[in-house]
Amino acid sequence: MADYRLAQAVDPGHDTRIFHFADSVFAHLPRADQRRWAQLYLQGLLTTPGRKSIRRLAAAVSAAPATASQSLHQFISASPWDWMPARQELIRLTGDHLPLRALTIGTVVLPKRGEHTCGVHRRFVPAAGRTISCQVGLGAFLATGEEDLPVDWRLLLPEQWNEDAKLRERARVPESVRHRPVWEHVLDLVDSVSTALPRRLTDRLPVVADLSEHLDAGRLLAGLERRGLDFVVAVPGALPVLPADPRVSRTVPGAAATPFGPVGARQFLRHHHVLPPRAVTLAAPGGRGRQLRVVSELVRLPGSCRTYRLFTEWHPAESRTPRVWITSLTGRRVEQLTTLAQAQAGTGLTVSLLERDYGLLDFEGRSFPGWHHHMTLVSAAHVYDRLLHAGAFGTRPPQNACDSRDRYFSARPKELTARW
């Protein structure tokens, strides 16, 4: 009870819309004090300038920061609350209020010191140009065409974390959580988002991901195909492909035609494409378009009868090697496919924004639940800001008003319009 009274000691000028949003997202928390600390942590992420350590958050939202800091730390790092219902609610709210264009997968690298923080390992990071100690996470982002909203996360555990019982116990890693390949994590994120969104949305929401550095990217393509989901995925240049027409044979100068066996995707586009490169103009900020040439061909994957389109930027005289993309959207124009592939760059910009403005890198705890709790609150802060900026609250009823959030977004529209 003392903690709950302390949570009331907040600047009376705070924006109550934050609390109503938090009430909806964290309605599943069983105790009133947990819901209140979720509200205050969220408020702190949105209002605290600079580094968002728990001490600074507590100072921003409480008149008794020392005690509030202890309670916020307990709520984030030690309290055993389930983060998945909150993320499912973020997915549903985003789908209700914003037009969705794609589900993108982004990677976050979180530098860490020491050896006991959950999932920490040494890795070469191209952006840093060196090997660092870090955590690596995968995020699911709902892209609208103007912005990407983070709605779910997975923490990648290196293989050495599978068997070290003492390390796992210190970091409170559940027994069921083990090292998994990236493609499995991606499918897990896709399933999570698909569960929360109506089928009419997931059926037309392509998955955009970059697995160009993962030799097992074909496993992801097979998983998405089994789920009946469309995709635009960057794959390794060595991914084996076949011509879409099985009757096509390979011709080599000075030799007879031979059956066309699997060829690496990059080699196929460079040496066996039939269609000439196509000029494409991509929209850019300020109205200036970026022009590039794209080459594409229809292909099959070994062991599959389905036809896909392979495409990449065309730079025959340069040493650079742009990403090779494969898509199930064979009926889309190359311009549309290239634009979808560029959504991956938008996800990277959102990650930078989360680092700069929403405290993505500022979690100081070591535990597996703590990491997920913090990432959930970071996502909630960003989604709140974007939905509010879009005028989503109090302006129109949700498209799928069918659960507990109706209390806040549609039950009493006149009152809520005034509050939101």
TrEMBL record:
Domain of life: Bacteria
Every Transposase IS701-like DDE domain range: 25-250
A Pfam family this chain is assigned to: DDE_5
Record InterPro entries: IS701-like, IS701-like_DDE_dom
Protein name, per record: IS701 family transposase
Organism: Streptomyces roseoviridis
